[in-house]
Amino acid sequence: MLLFRGKNFRHAFTELSSIPTFFRDVPYVALSATIPHSMVTTTLPKALGMVNPHIITANPDRPNIFLDKMKKPSSTDIAACYDSVLKPICQQLKEQKSSFPVTLMYVPHPANARGQAICSQLFGANDITTSLYSSLYHNQAEDVKQITLDELRKDSPRIRLVFCSATVSMGFDSPSFTNIIHLRPPRNIMDYMQQIGRAGRRGQQSKATLYYNASDIAKNIVGNTQEIIDFCHNNETCLRLQLLQWFGFTEPAVVINKCKCCVNCIAKCDCNDCVA
Fold first, then answer.
1. What's the distance, Cα to Cα, between the start and end of the chain in Å?
2. Helix, strand counts (H, E) of the chain
3. Residues 196, 34: Cα–Cα separation, whole Å
4. pLDDT tens profile 182-241
């Protein structure tokens, strides 16, 4: 069995030539969570040397996650651009405290430090054993990381806001997150799907909000893919369906009211709650 997680499958392709020829004659299975349809049907089987593979796919739709998308200011002052999103969120945490939805916020490393500084100004000196906020990133202090993870394993954790890097993705299965925020878009749809999938792990209603501006989705940024650019530009059609089509599905797994689907669909909803 071969398991491809996140971006790792790209690197694995280059190593497959080292597999002994005789081993390729043995039946095996390859598993992945978010490989696009085109790679499932062509690139992956060819790279693995599969002959007439039996492909089983499951719809990755997460109907309990409302998809939101918001433009942030375009500015050459990157700190001010970060603050336009970070300050209101941190202020809401200050005001709502334990009623603030448990939130995972994907931020660039400089914005992580900025978010921590804003919270520190609002709450005073930070003690991870009593704090309402924390962060998870590479090379973080082990004691802070462990306390944060232990708290997030609870159904109702004390920590309500976590600033994090893209390292917090597949395999991070806290039951309490109901809110995912991206301060800027990931480079591709695979990463986006993995990251918003951290919310609503128990099936509870959740929300994913993606902030972006023209600079974030410029084509000259290394790694930016056309699908994430198209997703940010889409202000008309269903965002959920746009994601699913990239994975080879033409309809959602579950039919839900448009007001619970995405920011593009909510204005078109005619359910009893919306019409009343």
1. 53
2. 10, 8
3. 12
4. 999 999 998 999 999 999 999 999 999 999 999 999 988 888 999 999 999 999 999 999
The token pair at 142 is 């082990």
Closest C-alpha among 195, 190, 198 to residue 210? 195
- Output the six-digit token pair for 165: 């890097």
| 99's tokens | 């009623």
Q: Looking at this protein, which amino acid is placed at residue 43?
A: T
Which domains are assigned to the chain? 2-47 (no CATH), 65-230 (3.40.50.300)
Cα 37 to Cα 40, 52, 183, 238, distances in angstroms: 5, 16, 27, 19
For residue 204, the number of C-alpha atoms closer than 13 Å in the C-beta half-sphere is 15
Q: What is the pLDDT of residue 12?
A: 52
Instruction: Report the amino acid identity of residue 195.
Output: Q
Residues forming a β-bridge with 65: 206
